[in-house]
Task: structure prediction
Amino acid sequence: MPTQITVRPDPRQFPSSSRVNYQRRFVRRSRRADLLVISLWASGAAAAALFLASGGAGQFGSLAETVTSMGIVAGLIGTDFILVMLVLAARIPFIDRTIGHDRAVAVHRALSKPALYLLLGHGALLLIGYGMSSGINPIAQIGPMLALPDMPLAFIAMGLMITVVVTSLVAVRRRFSYEGWHLVHLLSYLSVAFALPHQLSVGGVLAVGTAQRVYWIALYVVAFGCLITFRFVEPIVSSLRHRITVAGTTTIAPGVTSIHLSGHNLRGLGAAGGQFFIWRFWTGTTWWHSHPISLSAVPTSSTARITVRDLGSGSARISAVPVGTRVSIEGPYGLFTDAARTSPKVAIIAAGIGVTPIRALLDHARFAPGEATILLRASTQEETYHWDEIRELAAAKGARCYVMVGRRSRVGPGWISEQDALRGVTLAGTFPDLADSDLYLCGPTAWLDLVEADARATGIPQHQIHAERFDW
Amino acid sequence: MRTRAVLGSIFASVAVLVVGWQAGAAVVVTSTATTSAPQASGVTPAPVVGGTPTPAATPTAVPVPAGPADGTYTGASVATRYGSVQVSIAFAGGAITDVAALKLTDADGRSVQISNRAAPLLHDEVLASQSANVSNVTGATYTTRAYLSSVQSALDQAGF
Result:
C-alpha cells in the first residue's frame, strides 16, 4: 500500500474506472452547461426574430420607422432577458446540477443591467419614434402613449423594474437588510406581470392569431411555471413531507452552535455532502428570516445537523431556538459536492466555519486510500470546529489531514499561517498531486481569493477548482 | 468548452434570426398580394372612428350628365399588416358627399390610435379634393395608402 501512495500512478497503466467516469461525467455536465448558454443567447435572438417574422425587416424605411423598430426589438430582447433571469432564479434542479446555484445567481445578476438598459431604451426609443411619426416631441408623446390601452400598467411596470435593479446595485443593497431588499426584489414578479398586457395589445408583433403571440405566452408560462413549482410548491411540499423539527442544540465553541434536527425520511431529501438548504425556523422572532446554511453532516433517515456561527443578529437568534421548533426548508442546493468531480483525487482546504460543508462532503466523497489530502485552517485554536470529526473521517477513509493554526502571514501567498510560511510550506508542497485533483475550497471570501489565486498559479484548470465562499 | 458555447450561441442565434427574417419576408409578400376584390355589400361595418356625421348634401341644380348615380358605393377591402381598411363613398348630385370608414387598421392598440388620428384628416381631404389624390398623413402611411386605395376602388365602381 505505501508504494501506491508515494508512486504516482501512470494513467496509461492505471485505466482505473473511477478516472474514466469522472472525465465522462464532467464532459457530459459541461455539454449541458454549453447547451444552457446557447439557449440563453438563442432565446434573445428568437425575441428579435419575432419582430422580423412579422414583416419587421421592412420596417426601417424612414428614420421614425427605424427608431420605432429598434425600440420594439429592444423591448422584446429586454423582456426575454428578464424571463431568463426569472428562470435562473427559480432554482431549477437541472440548472443547479449543471452549473450550481452560485453561477446561476451570478448569471442572473450579470443579465440584470443589460436587461434594464434594453427596457429603458425600449421606452425612450418608442417615445421618440412615435413622436417623430406624429410630429411632436418625445415628452409630449407621453400623453398619447398613456392613452393607449394597457400603457399605464406598462409605465408602472417600468418604474417597478427600475426600483428592483437600483436596490440590487452593490452600493445601494448594502444599506438594506436582506429581508428589506428581498421584499423589494419580489416586486419584479409584479413588474413582469404588469408589462405583459401592453406587449399583447399595443404592438403588432404579438397580435392575436399570430405564432409569435403563442410563443411569447409560452415563454411567460414556462418562466412563471418554473418559479411557482421550484420556489414555492416544491419547498412547501418537501417541508410538509419531512416534518423537520429542532431536536437540540450544542455549543461547540464560543459563538458556534450545532443545531440537531430530526424529521421523516431525511435521506429522501437527496442531499449530497457539501450542499446547503435555506432554513426557516418557525418561532415568533425568527420566522420572517431565512438562512442559507450548509449541512455539517449528511442526513441519516431521521436526523440532520447544521452548524452556525453567530454573525448577523439573525444567526444569533437561531442558535437559541428551543427544542421542538418547526423548521421549513428549501433545497438542497449547490454543486460543492462529489458530483462536481472531474479528477480521481481530492484536495481540500477549509478555514474557520467553512469546515462545515467539508465535514459533510467527506461523508460522500469517493476516493481510494491515499488519494485525498485535507488542510484545515484556523486563526486560533478556538476556531477548530469539527476538526476532531474530520480527522476521524480522514483516518477511516485513508485521507491525509494537515492542520494549520495561526494568523495569516504577511509574506508569501498570504493565506498560509505566519509560522508555516516561514517554515517554507507551500500549496504545491502540501498537495503534490494537485494536477490530478479536484480542489475544494471553503472559507471567508478574502482568504479564499488568495488560495484560489495561488492554486491557479500552479496551472490547475478552473474546472478542477470548486470554491464556496462563506460570508455569513 | 467555452469556445463551443460561444460558437454554438452565434450559430444558433444567426439561424434563428434568418428563419425569422425569411418568415417575415413571406408575410410582406402575402400582405401586398392580397388586395381583395371589391365587395359591394355584406360587409359588417366595424364601429370605428372617423365617420363624422354626413353634412347634408347640397343638391346642385343641374346634375352633371356623365356623373355617377346618387347612392353609396363600397370600396375594396385593402389588407395591410396592421389590419384591413375599407371605406364607402356617398354620391349625391355627381359629387362625393361623404366618406365613411367601414373598417380601419385595428391589429393592435397602436394601429387603432394611428387610424383614429388619420381617418378624419383623410375624410376631409378626400371631400375637399373630390378624389383619391390626397397627400400622405405623416405617421400613418399604411392607413393612408389603404384608405385611398379603397376610395379609388369605390370611385371606379361609381365611374366617377
In short: Residues 1-17 of chain A have pLDDT under 50 and may be disordered.
